[in-house]
Amino acid sequence: EQHSADDAARKDFVEVKNEADSLMYSSQQSLTEHADKIDGELKESIEKAIENVRGALERQEDIPAIKTAIKELQATQMKIGEQVYKKGASSASSSSSTDSKGPIDAEY
User: Do the beta carbons of residue 13 and residue 63 sit within 8 Å?
Assistant: First the structure.
């Protein structure tokens, strides 16, 4: 009973830390996977956001500060999807215009 408040605070910190670790990992994976479709400015901003989250965790800042850093990283990570989608859509439209030879017959 005496330490229940401390335990609850520690539990909250661990949950936020796990969320941050997962997000940093997925952001790094996205950078690696889509490196050819991401411009340098976005790459730098994502790396900076990852470092902000990592720094907040290392300093063991209060949970709201860590959550703010997480939200900033999430917003920046969303831009990866936007750029990948835009580059994918533009390359798909250009390749579909060159491949318009008509229907392909196939047996099923």
Answer: yes
The pTM for the full model equals: 0.73
Secondary structure of residue 107 in the 3-state scheme: coil
The burial class, CB within 10 Å (0-12 / 13-18 / 19+), for 27 is: buried
68 exposure class (CB count in 10 Å sphere: 0-12, 13-18, 19+): middle
Q: Answer yes or no: are the C-beta atoms of 20 and 69 closer than 8 Å.
A: yes
Asked if the structure places residue 93 within a domain, the reply is no
Nearest-angstrom CA–CA distance, 76 and 73? 5
Q: Which residues contact 23 (CB under 8 A, 6 or more apart)?
A: 53, 70, 73, 74, 77
CA 62 to chain centre: 22
Q: What's 15's domain CATH number? A: 1.20.1270
Calpha distance 99→18 (Å, rounded): 47
Mean pLDDT by 10 residues, the chain (108 residues): 79 92 94 87 92 90 89 92 80 57 71
